[in-house]
Amino acid sequence: MPVSGGACREIDIGLTGSGGSVYVAGGMKIRRSFLRIFTGSDLARRRLPLLEADSGRAGPAVWLTACAHGDEIGGMVVIHEVFRALAKERLRCGVLKGLPLMNPIGFDSCSRHIPVSEEDLNRSFPGDAGGSLAQRMAARIFAALIDSNPDVVLDLHNDWTRSIPYVVLDAVPGSPALDRAASLAEATGFPVVVESDSMRHTLSHNLLNRGTAALTIELGESKVVNEENVALGAAAVWTVLRVLGMVEGTGPAGPPFPAVVPPGQLRYSDRPLCATSGILRFLVKPGDLVDEGRKLAVVDDAFGRRCEVIRAEAPALVLGVADSSVAYPGAPVTALGFLP
């Protein structure tokens, strides 16, 4: 990783057999290393890439995490772009750490889950060192985060193919970090959506439950790198770091946000669901603001006969539309953020 400006030297170091490098520029160190998770059947170590930027000055400890779902690649690239920008702008204070690839097994097969066990890593936190494969991986990741006593964790994800970026604020009543997380969510400039309390095993939920400010940032389509969403994500992360006093300057520049962002916290919903089978035809697009009763989609049968009209249950921002136009009873149609 090149560092521009100031004195720069690369030092080879031994990281308990993991390998890595340290770059020194203006007192800041950027290190690449690995977090071991387990040993494979071929005796090869399975490891998670770890990036660390240390300003050498007291300040916040922030983590960026991505690719808990192996097909959600954009967040990994956002972390790369933020660290590239740091090589030029540098940290004013504190420490920034990044786990850009938390599910390398899923990534290798472009799978949301961990293929060998068909588990969802981001439904396995805080983990269990003696549990299933996903629980063991989650426990290793969670311990690494908690041991560093982080102030803020931003967990980066991707959503439906046609969706806009937004921030998910987990509903963890009583968390002493919830107000701070809400303030940082607003600083991203993205719509802020409050998740239901049912997501108890996500990384962000468990961090908030332990008193650490944590956000889930959804960055549009999965499986491919959408450069516009990467730019938006990197700019949002940089803004959070600037609010925390860790960076100056503009950092990565993002394009104009592709929607009007309503004020306040929105309530996430994937309702109403389809009630019939057929061909799903969308009548709205991500970023649309819709009134109660607005037609979201229609369902036609194999003869082209209209068999269902799906309408918004309340005023909402359309966050995304389903990846498939195959309708069946119980199929999701849109992701909505109901307005306050």
What would you note in describing this structure?
The chain has 340 residues and is an alpha+beta fold. It folds into 2 domains: 9-243, Zn peptidases (Aminopeptidase), CATH 3.40.630; 266-338, RNA polymerase II/Efflux pump adaptor protein, barrel-sandwich hybrid domain (OB fold (Dihydrolipoamide Acetyltransferase, E2P), Beta Barrel), CATH 2.40.50. Helix content is 21%, strand content 31%. It has a 15-stranded mixed beta sheet that branches. A 4-stranded antiparallel beta sheet has the order 16-15-13-18, with no helix packed on it. β9, α4 and β10 form a beta-alpha-beta unit. α1 packs across α6. The longest helix has 17 residues, at 227-243. The chain is globular. It starts with 8 loop residues before the first strand and ends with a strand. Residues 1-19 have low confidence and may be disordered.
Can you tag this structure with a few keywords?
15-stranded mixed beta sheet; single chain; four-stranded antiparallel beta sheet; 6 helices; globular; 2 domains; alpha+beta; 31% strand; OB fold (Dihydrolipoamide Acetyltransferase, E2P); disordered N terminus; Aminopeptidase; 340 residues
